[in-house]
Write a structure and sequence with these properties.
The chain is an alpha+beta fold. The protein contains three helices and ten strands; from the N terminus they run βαββαββββββαβ. It has helices spanning 9-14, 32-35, 91-97, and strands at 5-6, 17-22, 25-30, 39-42, 48-50, 56-59, 64-67, 71-74, 80-82, 102-103. The chain has a five-stranded antiparallel β-sheet, with no helix packed on it. A three-stranded antiparallel β-sheet has the order 2-3-4. The chain has a two-stranded parallel sheet with strand order 1-10. Strand 5 (48-50) and strand 6 form a beta hairpin.
Length: 111
Amino acid sequence: EGSSKAYPIASLERELVVNDTLGEQEVVVFGRAVAGAARAYERMGLTFTPGDAAGEVVDDNGQTWTITDEALISADGTTSLSRLPSRELFWLGWSAFFPKTDVFVGSSPPG
């Protein structure tokens, strides 16, 4: 069974982009204000911040990425980072089936 982590919507409203690690997987999680819905993607060692336009983020190298339903796509189109399985659910329902789920409480250094 894989790791799971809950990212409360209120946390994603405060921190528009969350660079995190879930088990061994580096992830980036976006809230509704950035991606239109809460979504998680691979981050492959990159650290992301909100971009200038809706649906865009910028990595720590200054590269702009477009957020799509399937992946993050680099501005030059040569790289994509896959979207990870994630759902927006009510905590009451989720925790009944997955009581050992970690809950995100605020930013910590990625990695």
